[in-house]
Amino acid sequence: MSQLIRVDQTDQLPAGARKLYTVENRQIAIFNLSGTLYAVDNHCTHRDGPVGAGELNDVVITCPWHGWRFNVTSGHCLEDGPDLRCYPVHVEGNDVLIDVATTVGSNSDDGIYCYLVRYGALGHVGRVGSINRVPCRRGDRVVVNTDRGVELAELLEAPKDGAGRSSQERPTAELLRVATDEDRQQEVDLGDLHEEVLKASEELISQRGLSITAVDAEQLFDGQTIIVYYLGESTEKLGPVAVELSKTLENRRVQFQPIENIDSTEP
Ligand code: FES
Questions:
Q1: Predicted pLDDT of residue 236
Q2: CA-CA distance, 40 to 259, in Å (whole number)?
């Protein structure tokens, strides 16, 4: 049985266009290739990367995360992996509809195990996924691969025993493993650059007369990424500060991240 959902108008999808839609809790990318519309999951079958945002060559899209390639007209995976889920597209008048009940060229068991974790100095909470069940429980330290880099996290919730893989929940990062003794030792070996980074940041910010304040810093588990949290207006002038700071920190990658949603009202 089909389930047609209207997502757009044809004039919003001219030849060569691609757009992203959220339909029934899934992200779906629609491509207009030479006048024909194709809809595919925006969830790469490798590790759930945003494949629809990848580089398109003719009918082949390359996932921006690790380079897996898929044919967007069929979902066929050009690597040794599962195909991408495709959806029939219908045009009725000026309406574009997707049939979300019918899938083409997909592996019906493309779900993933989803885990809730907390990570980072500011305690971000998010979902991470794994194509295999990872035996772990609340409170465990785990290693995750987020859009910031490889870092340690605290497990808040694991799938219940007996629960299968879910095709509904979409994690934003990958669960790599439960932290091992070697991981814990690596964390110790990384040392604490916190004070050094904050001091160097403040000096560079003050030299440039920027009206921002660096308030916290952390080094990710990969040892190569430093994140500096700041208060104040975001400005492109932070780019050169990050470059300078990187030079003083043995060329580690430096990111400045604003702290948002702070209530600045006087008590
Ligand atoms: S997530 Fe797409 S190639 Fe890895």
A1: 80
A2: 35
